[in-house]
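Q: Okay, next protein. This is Membrane associated rhomboid family serine protease from Haloferula luteola. I've checked the sequence twice, so it should be correct. Can you predict the 3D structure?
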Amino acid sequence: MEDEWTEVGTWPSLAQADEHALVALAMRTDCRVMPRLGGFALEVAPEHAEPIRHELGVYAGEREVPFVVEAGPPLSWGLALVWGLLLLGVQALHERDPELPGRWLNDARRVWEDGEWWRAFTALFLHADAGHLLGNLLIGGSFCVMVGTVFGAGRGWALILASGFLGNLATGWIHWHFDEPFRSLGASTATFGALGLIVGAGLVRSWRERRYGALKPLMVPLAAGGCLLSLYGAGGENTDVLGHLCGTGMGVVLGILMTLWLSRPKVDWQ
């Protein structure tokens, strides 16, 4: 009976052996964990030993890649300050030029019928009033700094703007598709995109570690996101709830894709 099992790895604790047994189970392969002197061994059928060893090697390589990359809090806060000053500058320009929103805001028909796609980007810099601007600066700025500590400051801010831009495009398309007039402005789509980026990166980490406990750090940004939605008034007449959802969704997708790309095993071409 012992000849029917082949050892593919040993670990010092039962928890570690059980964790790596999930790799075999994910491949729909029977396995067992057996005690050994100084640790625990994972055993599988002989015909599955080599494929399982290969997957265990890939899994080990993935776990060696750090989740946080190029963390740079000082630079992240610096870029957050630049972002805040830029929004304040645009708000001042808006007060001097009342026609500015007409040229910059996100207009579904102008974007999808006239090809003025840049409106989905420029709308991120416009705000209806000081309260709208202040909400994005205070809570949104914190989200954006968190994104910078995960993806790196420059890359993180590029992802935030991309999620806001794509979220505005998606929101406008949905309204345009159903022949509904729609116009919007504000950085909240990018703010919720930042929340989505954090969640997306956390989901990848949880999946790779094969444990739900890795999702616990997401509770803080999710709670803050709920507070932000309440601050804007989820059911208010001028609240773009769909835009918030689209921004979050785009952020989650970009966060997952970027985390997978950054943590991919490095290939040595020598």
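A: Here is a summary of the prediction. Strands lie at 6-11, 31-36, 39-44, 106-107, 183-184. The longest strand covers residues 6-11.
Q: Noted. On to the next one.
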